[in-house]
Amino acid sequence: MDSAALDFFKRILATPSPSGYEGPVQALVREYAAGFADRVTTDVHGNVIAVKNPDAPLRVMLAGHCDQIGLLVSYVDSEGFVYIQTIGGWDPMQLIGQRLTVWSQNGQVEGVIARKPIHLLTEEERKQVPKIKDLWLDIGAKNKDEALARVRIGDPVTLALGYTELPNDRACSPAMDNKSGLWVVIEALRRASQRGVRCGLYAVSTVQEEIGLRGAKTSAHTINPHVGIAVDVTHATDCPTIDKKEQGDVALGGGPVVYRGPNMNLKVTERLIEVAARSEIRIQPAAIGRATPNDANMLQISGGGVATGLISIPNRYMHSAVEMISLEDIDRAAELIANFAVGLSGDEDFTP
Fold it and tell me: Given its phi and psi angles, is residue 22 left (phi above 0), alpha (psi -120 to 50 degrees) or beta?
């Protein structure tokens, strides 16, 4: 992996981007992509669109959402404790005992979420799963006025951000969902731009996927692509408690996952598989028999329809503070997509 590309990956992981508050990470994307894209624009929704060959007749859109799950300041009580609501899907158990950051207009405000010590819990309380509405963020304020001088209602909150490399080319951080996919689409554009890609290749850092696949819908409407490839994470099943009979056999380090199913165009999917074989890129097969819960869903039904593919990055412990991916998997995914795009002449027909 190129050292500058790896540094970009680390920087986007260290930058907050809860759905609706993606501005800081999008600024990094614009700055980085300007070094190899012919044009970089941001739409009114917040999607960043980097394109090579904008005048080419065949348009291929790569979608990787930049937003992460987060929280939102919604109430401050008289003692200065901050109550929150969720942005995206959370397991409340993941929040207890965590350090969090409020991203206020005055800068970062650090805080923690905990609960009553185990010594003080009743037998009934020990059996209960806490609810988000009963959790509070302690920012060290003495009272409501002090808290509201530091944070505002509507300020976004994230888990404490931080990147850790582990053995066997693995890395751990909040927001691997989906800074991994964002990195892949931007890196694929960078590599394809160095190899004489002929199609119009649009790498889009989409917004608000975690609250309804919204950015993919608006950006696809603007681009009107013929082909679309979404890149997102998927559940790695090579760890305890996950049933492979239900979720498939997906391993960290086993390569990017290429999905088949009704949401995916048969010709796009087969071409991805063929390109992987020719390029000696190891991939993992997976299937989903319904509309996918990611940007591929919106891509397929945009406009008059888009020939859609889905490539996923295996991710352990999704929607937690310790999401884990393989750096080798994201590198292979970028290479696969770059080779797919470079191989397009413009005369392809993806009609089923």
Answer: alpha
pLDDT, tens digit, for every residue of 36-46? Answer: 999 999 999 99
pLDDT by residue (tens digit) across 301-326?
999 999 999 999 999 999 999 999 99
pTM equals: 0.96
Structure confidence at residue 348 (pLDDT): 95
What are the CA-CA distances from residue 33 to residues 12, 184, 221, 241, 329 (Å)? 13, 12, 22, 40, 21
- Pairing mode of beta strands 98-104, 107-113: antiparallel
CA distance 242 to 220: 34
- Return the H-helix or E-strand segment holding 145: helix 144-148
The CA distance from 192 to 198, in Å, is: 9
Q: Which domains does the chain have, with CATH numbers?
A: 3-68+174-342 (3.40.630.10), 70-159 (2.40.30.40)
Report how far Cα 45 is from the mean position of its chain's Cα atoms: 17
CB 271 within 8 A of CB 264: no
Question: Mapping DSSP to helix (H, G, I), strand (E, B) and coil, where does residue 185 land?
Answer: helix
**307 closest CA partner among 203, 220, 229:** 229
Residue 110 a catalytic site member: no
Annotated active-site residue in 22, 209, 323, 328:
209
Question: Rounded to an integer, what is the distance from CA 263 to the centroid of its chain?
Answer: 19
